[in-house]
Amino acid sequence: MNTARLMQGNEACAEGALAAGVRFFAGYPITPSTEIAETMARLLPAVGGKFVQMEDEIASIGAILGASLAGEKVLDATSGPGFSLKQELIGYAACAEIPAVIVNVQRVGPSTGQPTAPSQGDVMQARWGTHGDHPIIALSPWTVREAFDATVMAVNYAERFRTPVILLMDEIVGHLREKVVLPEAHEIEVYARRKPKSTRAEGYQPYAPDEDLVPNTADFGEGYHIHVTGLIHDETGFPSGSPKVTAEAISRMHKKIEIAQDEITHYDEFFMDDADYAVVAFGGTARTAYEAVKDARARGRKVGMIRLMTIWPFADKVIARTAAKVKGILVPELNYGQVVHEVERAAMGQCKVELLAKYNTEIFAPREITAAIDHLCAGGKD
User: Fold this and answer.
1) In the prediction, which pLDDT does 251 show?
2) How many CB atoms lie within 10 A of CB 147?
3) Can you give the pLDDT at residue 380?
4) What does the alpha-carbon distance between residue 188 and residue 166 come to, in Å, rounded to a whole number?
5) What is the DSSP-derived secondary structure letter of residue 49?
6) Which contacts (CB < 8 Å, 24+ apart) does range 144-147 have?
7) What is the CATH classification number for the domain harbouring 133?
């Protein structure tokens, strides 16, 4: 039985990656994510893995994509400036369907911004940072233990859907220390790398989709001699300029995730049974929001909370259902306003939606969110 440990969120992330089977990490140190690299450097050799400190963030993601193509489960960790540099190769991974997990421990931006200061300003970049129509999965943990669990989940999703997955942490959770008990190895569900189900002689094509619309692409070194490109390609893996092939390829990339969206959408509901108002929050901010909601309820406010773990694809059904039963939704976030726009879209005018934004390097105090709840209950926007 595992014993309780005092762990940092970044350390739990690294431990989760190892538990999910990650055996290759390439990265470049950047606060507030550096402890992930430090922990991987210390622990990977003991399990036969490889840690490489690259010359920059672009080289780091290039290295993990190469290792993934060669059959390893992979991880890279960074923060805002580094995440910006990785966008081209995130798009490459989406188009070439290369499994990879990129951890972004968010800090204040833009540019160099405020190193190590907490922020949640990379939400839209996680979805649309690379160009073109592409799918993405992004998860945001709110506890140290969930940093472990979400990393396992991210690795599993990357492998299952052959897609880049973003672990969208924030400095609050990354540097938070909590007492946690990690699960035993036999308690952790690990998704194995997909493998070809036929040989070349039997007509195998590396990008032919399986029943779940995901291809069982062979790893390099297995004798299949596959071609990998960031150009739109057909089932052979070779580029095609056909409008039909282009439409089918882009559609399939999206649909392989869309058909599993209900399963991918993870969230918590608190005090929603009798709620007239709701707070929608994620990551470290959700911790403060939870305390604020409890305080508001203790003073007689009928307010509940939706805590989003899955940020992308967005929880449209959850928000639409919530908006249909409440009079208003408050969205506190450590940015100038990003998730609030998705909440407004998903709410479809069924209730008012208000933003509580903060972007001055400080986290929310419960009293700030409580005051915003009171304002919403009193009628909302002035």
Assistant:
1) 98
2) 32
3) 66
4) 20
5) -
6) 144/7, 144/8, 144/9, 144/12, 144/173, 144/176, 144/177, 144/178, 144/180, 145/12, 145/178, 145/180, 145/181, 145/182, 146/309, 147/9, 147/10, 147/12, 147/13, 147/16, 147/173, 147/174
7) 3.40.50.970
Measured CA to CA in angstroms, residue 272 lies from 175, 191, 321, 323, 351 at distances of 30, 34, 11, 12, 15
Output the average pLDDT for the chain: 97
Domain count, the chain: 2
Q: Can you give the three-state secondary structure of 117-130, one letter per residue? A: EECCCCHHHHHHCC
pLDDT, tens only, 221-243: 999 989 999 999 999 999 999 99
Compute the distance between CA of residue 100 and CA of residue 68 in angstroms, rounded to an integer. 7
For residue 256, being part of any structural domain is answered with no
Query: CATH number of the domain that 305 lies in?
Result: 3.40.50.920
Please classify residue 43 by burial: count the beta carbons closer than 10 Å to its beta carbon, then call 0-12 exposed, 13-18 middle and 19+ buried.
middle
Domain coverage including residue 325: 267-377
